[in-house]
Amino acid sequence: MARAYGSNAALLLKRETTYGQRATGNYWKMPFTSCNLSSEQGLIDDPVLGFGRDPAQPLRDVINDDGDIAVPVDPRYLGLWLTGLFGDPDSDDVAAEGYIDFSINPTQGDTITINGVEFTFVDDTPGANEIDIQGTGIQTVDEIVSVLNGSSDDDVNDATYSRPTGTQRLRVVHDTAGQAGNAFTLAASAATVSGDTLTGGGTAHVFLSGSDDLPSYSIEVGLSKIPAFFMHTGVVLNSIAFSFQRSGAATATVSVVAQGEGRNGATLGGTPQTLTFGRISQFQGEIRSGGVPVANLTAGNFTYSNNLERIETIRDDGKIDGADPTVASLTGSIDVRFADTTFFDKAQDGDPIDLEFSYTLDSGLSITFTAHEAHLKKPRVAVNGPGGVQATFEFTGAKNESAGQMLTVTLLNDLDGSQYA
Prior knowledge:
Layout: E1 9-15, E2 28-30, E3 34-35, E4 38-44, E5 59-72, H1 78-86, E6 90-94, E7 97-101, E8 111-114, E9 117-122, E10 130-132, H2 137-149, E11 159-162, E12 169-174, E13 186-188, E14 192-193, E15 202-208, E16 217-223, E17 228-244, E18 251-258, E19 260-264, E20 285-289, E21 292-293, E22 297-305, E23 309-311, E24 322-324, E25 329-337, H3 342-349, E26 353-362, E27 365-376, E28 390-397, E29 407-413
Parallel strand pairs: 9-10
Antiparallel strand pairs: 1-2, 1-16, 3-5, 4-5, 5-18, 6-15, 7-12, 7-14, 8-9, 8-13, 11-12, 15-29, 16-17, 17-18, 17-19, 17-22, 20-21, 20-26, 22-25, 23-24, 25-28, 26-27, 27-28, 27-29
């Protein structure tokens, strides 16, 4: 006799044209680690009297269809869930970039290598692929900018070079937006490079909190060995939760509310579509504030919620009429070793901070959640034994007037955005 196993389960998803009407065509086959999305219908004791002590048959109650889906953090598939949470993204190609920092003025014989082409610093009349050392570091970087922007070498002139004001940094931006620039290489013998190659080239999908226009989905949970395929329609995404820690697999928990469920003997998801799967580990995550990593950080988490309100009208099928977003919320916490009073002072004075939670798979694949205004709760400080003293700072997000929203999510990958919109 066949039995159902999670190893044979499948989760299919597709956006609906009209709320509650099952999407047709080919669904997306989604990676997941657990799913308890299911409907339930309770029973109500019948209060009627007069027929003895044995109870009458119970009455059926309304249908509730909701649950949590744990999904791996992936730079492509996650965009489908983010679209449900925030609405359609704004997708644009962005160029790869990098830098070379000169802490001191280069000396005779030092080199920089731009996309495989070596340039040597000299203190006399420069020849081909040579750069004349100037009186100060800033002046020398300006000379580098002039030489590289004027180069006729096809390996060099694929990028544009500049020096940010007040720095001794050579900024390099690839001329072609997209992933192509991520292969452009950088090296230096006596300076600091941002990386072996330029990074950040790809398509940036930007999601903003606070949208009123959220899509609905049809989600099928399939157990092929039975066979039983549970189709949930009118699925609206309520919240997503992330937990950042030192090790393990990066996973998010998505909470959903559906209108109803139907069981079928065969899949209704057509021929499932797939994307390239790129698993992310916790060590590839980072939490920043003010543009720099949070010092002495041991863990962090946050939850964004649409705080859906079920529209529980009277219907003969026991289903809801919809699930509408109300005031969004962003809550979470960061755990830090007690090494200074920076966050304590912020919490005590009521000064909000910005928090940036990010995962980076490689140069063209990343996910960044930017809380523009996080208000910290002043925590208790407890000393428990001889070990390190740690504090947990809980925070609540709020709309930042300058940014225009509470939360911005930037998903960088190699998709054009048609998969999400």
